[in-house]
Amino acid sequence: MELNEIGGHKIQDYCFSSDNTSCPKETRSTAVYVILYVFFISVVMLTVCGNLVVIISISHFRQLHTPTNFLLLSLAVADFLIGLIVMPLQMIRYIETCWYFGITFCVFFYAVVTLLSVVSLSNILLISIDRYLAVCDPLQYSNKITLNNMRMCIILSWSFSVCYVAIMFSINFKRSENRNTCRGDCFFEMSGAWVIVDTLICFILPYPVMIVLYMKIFIVAKRHAQIIRSVPGQQNCRDGSNSKISKRSERKAAKTLGIIISVHFLCWIPYYLSSLVVGNVNFSSYSIVMDSLLFLVYFNSTMNPILYAFFYPWFQKSTKEILTFRICDPASTLITLFPENL
Q1: pLDDT class of 60 with cuts at 50, 70, 90
Q2: pLDDT at 17 over 80
Q3: What is the pLDDT of residues 70-92, one digit of tens each?
């Protein structure tokens, strides 16, 4: 923490200089402030704009109205809100080392963070289940996974997240409210028991399930590939060719979504492991490690659209259609974004 010097005496900076209950403030050089703000604003803009393109693309183009893409749409909405609400507040808090928005907005901030985090996790879990059924039970997939069924799953996902946040805050709110803090701080502290519950629901139970599902997916996909290569005569049969294309498409989709889920793992697992080690979550302490882990968690929302741009040709073409304003034409909803045989 740096101190200013006036007349040879070191003067401590505070978040609210006129309030003797204010938290101390860490000061930085102007160059550091400029670099940090430029960096974080760039990340926020990339997160908001990237996920907004995903939302517009899947909502507008009918060819993208598939159950799997609806899950990506729900995930993009959560990531968009993280970029629009969570990241700017966390950016100011990190750079200024103070919370200037009051206690009420502090509670709102952590409620939104928790809600969107649980929504993202539940969507990632649903994507794993969707890909498992598509690859491992393709004959029944179209019957089990319909657009209406997927809409209902998404609604249940968001509803569960809202209920989870309501229960968590009703149990832990008094604990944080009664804790003495200086003005300019913002934290939400969970009891040790709730940390265990939270880790169980949001880490220990879902992640092994997703890992097992994807292990089965790649085993089945590898078996399908071996069968297709061992029967070259299928290439001359129309039905066999269509089956080959369909299986290849499902394997490719599973591989791409597997990468997205893997990035989610890499961004979130360090945070949950640190929570287990610490034993409780206290956001009032500003360590370099916790700041880095929180930034890594939020950065996952930035990475998703970048991964779509690399692995989904439809994302690249839809982005071009959006940037050139061709989507203003009502007939643009019927534009073909990718060949049927991919």
Answers
A1: very high
A2: no
A3: 999 999 999 999 999 999 998 88
Q: In sequence order, what DSSP letters do the residues of 241-303 get, joined into one string?
A: HHHHHHHHHHHHHHHHHHHHHHHHHHHHHHHHHHHHHHSS--TT---HHHHHHHHHHHHHHHH
What is the C-alpha separation between 229 and 233, in angstroms, rounded? Answer: 10
Beta-carbon contacts of 147 under 8 Å, excluding residues fewer than 6 positions away, are 65, 66, 67, 70
Give the C-alpha separation, 129 to 211, whole Å.
11
- 132-136 contacts, C-beta under 8 A, 24 or more apart: 132/213, 132/214, 132/216, 132/217, 134/68, 134/250, 134/253, 134/254, 135/217, 135/220, 135/221, 135/224, 135/250, 135/251, 135/254, 136/216, 136/217, 136/220
| Residue 87 DSSP code | H
Burial class (CB in 10 A: 0-12, 13-18, 19+), 315: buried
| Average pLDDT over the chain, rounded to an integer | 81
Q: Which residue has the higher pLDDT, 242 or 122?
A: 122
